[in-house]
Automatic annotation (TrEMBL):
GO biological process entries: terpenoid biosynthetic process
Single GO molecular function: terpene synthase activity
Protein keywords: Lyase, Magnesium, Manganese
Alphabetical list of InterPro entries matching this protein: Terpene_synth_N, Terpene_synth_N_sf, Terpene_synthase-like, Terpenoid_cyclase/PrenylTrfase
Domain Terpene synthase N-terminal: 11-119
Biological source species: Punica granatum (Pomegranate)
Protein name: Terpene synthase N-terminal domain-containing protein
Length: 124
């Protein structure tokens, strides 16, 4: 199992798949076994984000990326990544109510907001 997880983290895959793999490993309570591999994968994802290559267009992938980077607190991801989901009234777009997976990911990400970051609290 350990070899499978290591290979999974080192494998070339879609950015969302990699984030979901990291999330699954963490939810299983195995994070400490794969710290080096997770750190390497997150460094790669973070560098890709810094160069503007990845596109996180949906709420789920944006919120998952935000939460995982914030859980590994040395990655600073601004709350502004959620601005594209806010309507002109300052609330999350009504069309997002059909995106259950995205809303659950947003809810989980909201626990990683810092003091003074109001996008979660003003919009929910």
């Amino acid at each position: 199992m350990a070899d499978y997880a290591r290979n999974l983290l080192n494998k070339q895959m879609d950015l969302l798949e990699k984030l979901e793999s990291i999330d699954a490993i963490q939810q299983l309570g195995l994070r400490y076994h794969f710290e080096r591999e997770i750190k390497h994968a997150l460094n790669s994802l973070y560098e890709s984000a810094a160069t503007g290559r990845p596109q996180y267009d949906d709420l789920h992938s944006t919120a998952l990326r935000f939460r995982i980077f914030r859980q590994h607190y040395y990655y600073e991801v601004p709350q502004d990544v959620f601005r594209k989901f806010i309507d002109e009234t300052g609330n999350f777009r009504a069309t997002l109510t059909d995106d259950v997976k995205g809303l659950l990911s947003l809810y989980e990400a909201s626990f990683h907001g810092f003091k003074g970051e109001d996008i979660f609290f003003d919009s929910l």
